[in-house]
Design brief:
The structure holds two protein chains of two kinds.
Chain A: E1 10-11, E2 16-17, E3 20-21, E4 27-28, H1 75-94, E5 111-120, E6 123-133, E7 138-142, H2 149-156, E8 164-169, H3 174-179, E9 183-186, H4 198-208, H5 215-222, H6 237-249, E10 255-259, H7 267-281, E11 286-291, H8 294-300, E12 303-308, E13 311-316, H9 318-325, E14 328-333, H10 339-343, E15 348-354, E16 357-362, H11 365-375, E17 379-385, H12 388-396
Parallel strand pairs in A: 7-11, 7-12, 9-10, 10-11
Antiparallel strand pairs in A: 1-4, 2-3, 5-6, 5-8, 12-13, 14-16, 14-17, 15-16
Helix pairs in contact in A: 4-5, 5-6, 6-7, 8-9
Chain B: H1 2-10, H2 21-33, H3 35-52, E1 62-63, E2 66-67, H4 68-97, H5 100-104, H6 111-140, H7 147-160, H8 162-174, H9 180-195, H10 206-212, H11 216-229, H12 236-260
Antiparallel strand pairs in B: 1-2
Helix pairs in contact in B: 2-6, 3-4, 3-6, 4-6, 4-7, 4-8, 4-9, 4-11, 6-7, 6-8, 7-11, 8-12, 9-11, 11-12
Classes of the chains: A alpha/beta, B mainly alpha.
The structure holds adenosine-5'-triphosphate and magnesium ion (MG).
């Protein structure tokens, strides 16, 4: 699977072969040493638990349903639209076409949302979300306040019912999945009794499930074994969050949902909390988490779902979405540009050729500019910067009339 | 992949909707850890008994098959048991405010099993309260009645207090506040006066007395004293009990349905 052209940016395609679809692919970084998702490494994908083979990689995103990077340089709205189209087509393929018979699927989807709407009176919190999470994926819901992350999660957990649409967790109704301990959650806030100790809280939870992990083991995994005897009321915010995490681990769920798990934690608390989650995810658990923090989604998810005003505006691997939101875009006039050659340039995240104009998105546009000026007939170079946050905000802005960055 | 499928198939729901005595034990421990609960439901009734039940000017006077001290001991045991069961039921209020109920909804625990756990926890605390008051009576040595009546009245008080577990749940679902216990303490004090637990209703004016007979503790109080006092039995007592039980239970069920409704 290692790509021959080391140093080339390679899009790992979302490939459709015989109707089965591989997971969102990662990117081979400039070094050419194939790292896939940021923290699991390529080996994970072979694990029996996930039931999928090595990710199929194809250079230059040439595979059928590949998330092309060409859309990236189109500016916020263009990128958004492009990604949505891609995302939707992926999801359509990911599903057994309209048929309820899933015998050809090794394992049902961990989360299957189709056309899900949720209204609270006049508030349209979720507006037509389609989402397929495959077993073993680590997915981040990224979006600003009020985007509909918690509303969506509540429906996945069976805490609320969609106004319309279909929700299934491992092929069953959410409440059934919860009852069987298939899915558990770390809630955004609350959910702890102050007058129990840490160990008692976990024990309480453990008694409610048909099968549960030993309390000591769970405390150990959440990193709170040493405060087992402490009253919950005396625990710090970070410790309480770890306790919620421990409670969620009790049934050894297939799917773990975390709603803004590090809210209100300091940097170190955040880091060590994620260390615990990361350790857990390495065992192959499916994880869906909501966050405001782009960096968090970037560092810990292998797929990011950007939500804005109750809709999915982008859906792709961490690297893909990150490149939407970082780096700069170089624009030049280059008649007769060889797109493939441009893609092969070091650091070129995405290349789009429109007539005589080329748009290259890259983290190192300076080097690209130097190369183009020295080695090609490129002229009228323009480099536009887009800050990380700025881009994220542009993608998720609540304002419908977000200015379009570049022409469509 | 088959491993996962097998794992999925292996998963099952717990028996009894997640109900377990281990959880009841944890709930009781929680209640006993709460200093205010212990003072108001376990210690206060004993103090009231010691204050009112040992007064030598009337304590040894005859009351049915026993004496007035025994009569007052039963009243105070009822007071304690009612506080205990109401308080136990009302903890749902705090748990809702803390988001614990929501957390429980992402576990297999069924709402009915949760209510059963709350009821049983209340009953355990009620039993402790009755036992503490009766033990104080034994130690004080003043209350006198045949041995079987200690058991019969104690059990009547205990079982009867279940009525107030329903009341506690109702109030707990009605008031979403952490101060629900203060409200309950006040309301139960009124009910206790109305039921004649502190002052015999015969000392009230006729109008006040008729009003008092409509309050929830009246019928229960008369019934738990009946084995000791004997004499004329009034059907209005069990009727009062049943009507109030119906009111509290339907109130609790109504609020409970609203609470667990998946909106
Ligand atoms: N119970 C409710 N009643 C009315 N409106 C609601 C309710 N719950 C959510 N909303 C509204 O739905 C929208 C989406 O809310 P939601 O909590 O899902 O957002 P979120 O993405 O989780 O935001 P945050 O990042 O702040 O947690 C918001 O506008 C919110 O005000
Ligand atoms: Mg939220």
């Amino acid at each position: 699977m290692a790509d021959a052209r080391a140093g080339t940016s390679v899009v790992v395609g979302v490939q459709s072969e015989k109707g089965s679809v591989e997971k969102w692919g990662p990117i081979i970084l400039a070094s050419g040493v194939g790292t896939t998702c940021p923290w699991r490494g390529p080996t994970r994908s072979g694990s029996a638990r996930e039931g999928r083979g090595e990710p199929t990689m194809s250079p230059n995103g040439s595979s059928g349903a590949a998330l092309g990077f060409g859309v990236v340089s189109q500016g916020p709205l263009g990128a958004r639209d492009g990604l949505i189209d891609n995302a939707m087509s992926l999801h359509d393929e990911a599903r057994p076409q309209g048929s309820p018979d899933r015998s050809d699927q090794p394992v049902p989807l961990a989360v299957d949302l189709r056309g899900v709407h949720k209204n609270f009176g006049a508030v349209r919190a979720v507006r037509g979300v389609d989402l397929a999470v495959r077993p073993g994926e680590v997915v981040a819901f990224l979006g600003p306040n009020g985007a509909g992350k918690t509303s969506t999660i509540d429906m996945i957990l069976g805490l609320s019912r969609p106004t319309s649409g279909h929700v299934a967790v491992y092929g069953m109704a959410p409440q059934q999945a919860v009852g069987r301990g298939l899915v558990s959650a770390v809630m955004q806030n609350g959910g702890l009794l102050k007058d129990l100790t840490v160990a008692e809280t976990v024990a309480y939870t453990a008694h409610l499930f048909a099968v549960s992990r030993p309390v000591a083991e769970v405390l150990e995994r959440a990193g709170i074994a040493e405060i087992a005897g402490r009253m919950v009321a005396k625990c710090s915010g970070g410790e309480q969050q770890r306790l919620r995490f421990a409670m969620a681990l009790v049934p050894d769920p297939e799917l773990l949902i975390l709603d803004e798990p590090t809210q209100g934690m300091d940097v170190e608390g955040r880091r060590s909390f994620w260390r615990a989650i990361r350790h857990d995810a390495e065992q192959g658990r499916t994880i869906v988490f909501a966050t405001h923090y782009l960096e968090e989604a970037d560092a810990y998810a292998d797929r990011i779902v950007l939500i804005r005003r109750g809709e999915i505006v982008a859906d792709g691997s961490a690297a893909e979405v990150k490149s939407l939101a970082s780096g700069r875009t170089l624009r030049a006039t280059l008649p007769g540009a060889d797109e493939a050659a441009l893609r092969a340039l070091p650091g070129a995240d995405s290349v789009e050729v429109r007539g005589d104009t080329v748009l290259i998105h890259s983290a190192d546009t300076d080097a690209l500019a130097r190369y183009l000026l020295n080695n090609t007939a490129a002229r009228d170079l323009e480099i536009t910067a887009r800050g990380l946050e700025e881009a994220f905000l542009a993608l998720t802005a609540d304002d419908e009339s977000t200015p379009v960055g570049a022409e469509r | 992949m088959t491993a996962t499928q097998a794992a999925l198939a292996e998963r099952r729901t717990p028996p009894l909707g997640g109900f377990s005595m281990a959880v009841v034990a944890l709930e009781v421990r929680r209640l006993l850890r709460n200093r205010r609960t212990v003072i108001f439901t376990l210690i206060a009734p004993v103090i009231f008994f010691l204050l009112f039940g040992l007064n030598s000017s009337y304590a040894n006077q005859r009351a049915g098959h026993g004496n007035v001290s025994a009569f007052i001991m039963i009243s105070m045991a009822l007071y304690g048991a009612v506080l205990a069961t109401t308080g136990g039921g009302a903890t749902v209020s705090v748990e809702r405010a803390l988001g614990w109920s929501r957390q429980l909804r992402v576990t297999p625990l069924s709402p009915v099993a949760y209510i059963a756990i709350k009821m049983l926890t209340s009953l355990v605390l009620g039993l402790v309260s009755v036992t503490v008051v009766y033990t104080a009576g034994v130690i004080a040595g003043k209350p006198s009645m045949p041995a079987y009546l200690w058991v019969v009245t104690g059990c009547c008080v205990w079982v009867g207090s279940l009525l107030f577990a329903a009341f506690g749940l109702f109030v707990g679902y009605l008031l979403p506040s952490e101060n629900v216990m203060q409200v309950i303490g006040f309301v139960l004090m009124l009910f206790s006066f109305g039921g004649g637990l502190f002052i015999p209703l015969s000392q009230f004016s006729p109008a006040l007395r008729h009003a008092a007979e409509l309050t929830p503790l009246y019928g229960l109080n008369e019934l738990v004293h009946y084995p000791l006092v004997g004499g004329a039995f009034a059907w209005s007592w069990p009727v009062s009990l049943v009507v109030w039980l119906a009111i509290f239970t339907s109130g609790a069920v109504w609020r409970f349905r609203r609470d667990t409704a998946r909106v």
